[in-house]
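Dissemination and training. As part of the outreach component of the grant, students in the summer workshop were shown how a complex can be specified as a set of sequence lines and then modelled as a single object. The example used during the hands-on session is reproduced here so that future cohorts can follow it. Participants entered these lines:
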Amino acid sequence: MKFKIISKGDERSNKIKAKMKQHLIDFDLLYDKEEPDLVISVGGDGTFLEAFHRYNHRLSNTAFIGIHTGHLGFYADYVPEELEKLVIEIAKTPYQIVEYPLLEVIIRSKTGNKTDTYLALNEATIKTPESSVVFDVEIRGERFETFRGDGLCISTPSGSTAYNKALGGGIIHPSLEAIQLTEMASINNRVFRTIGSPLILPKHHTCLLKPIVDRSFFITIDHITHNYTNVKSIQCRVAKEKIRFARFRPFPFWNRVRDSFIADNN
Ligand code: NAD
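and obtained this result:
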């Protein structure tokens, strides 16, 4: 079994990384940063997002696990005190795998048929530094509305507790293969109208955003911001690929939601 550890880079995370790496090597596991079977992130959710993006080209061959060195994370949900137990469990492979859905985003340019495809673990957001965004929103090939406002957020179920939640979106259990569209300050008056509620789209219901006013866009894919001009369309749907988590003990999603947002026991 080959593994790779990604640290947040602070002293505590680096120490845990070094200790864990040595223990796993002592158990005859191979440290391989090119083709790891297991990627361990040590830090916070931000570190986990980085790990996901570094290895999202080989999702069917890589499982992920997150250890948090700050507050309890949604992806980084193991504590450093569990390290020894975790090492033994990892060495005992095979381990249980839990899969969560991802978001696929395809950005098509007006010039030269250029397309960029991304996978997001949390969400994509579309904003502009110039006034507001104006999009035609199509769902399954049918025009749904024209959106005017600060922007739109399209999230995965596991990302529904992140930016989406701050926008008033619902929390979706990751066993549901869906994406959620939430508005950022839509303009609603006698002239302009949007639905105003978050929309939850099932698998195969593609959402297409077609800019009707030419703007430069900030398109974020999780923690990464891309600048775009000349955008013809932004297509969002549930991805074919999934993220695979290595699970060594149960930590149900709703317990994580409770412990992160309600109970004072982080
Ligand atoms: P970061 O590390 O500062 O993360 C921001 C916070 O989001 C952290 O507290 C992190 O634990 C939390 N978080 C990340 N994923 C989560 C999830 N799935 N569920 C619940 N909380 C989660 O910043 P970053 O590394 O740039 O992370 C990018 C993420 O930050 C984005 O994917 C977005 O979801 C989130 N974000 C949130 C807001 C907001 O809530 N208003 C605004 C911008 C970005």
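Residues 44-46, 49, 73-74, 122-123, 158-159, 161-163, 166, 222-223 surround nicotinamide-adenine-dinucleotide (CB under 6 Å). Students were then asked to discuss how this feature might be tested experimentally.
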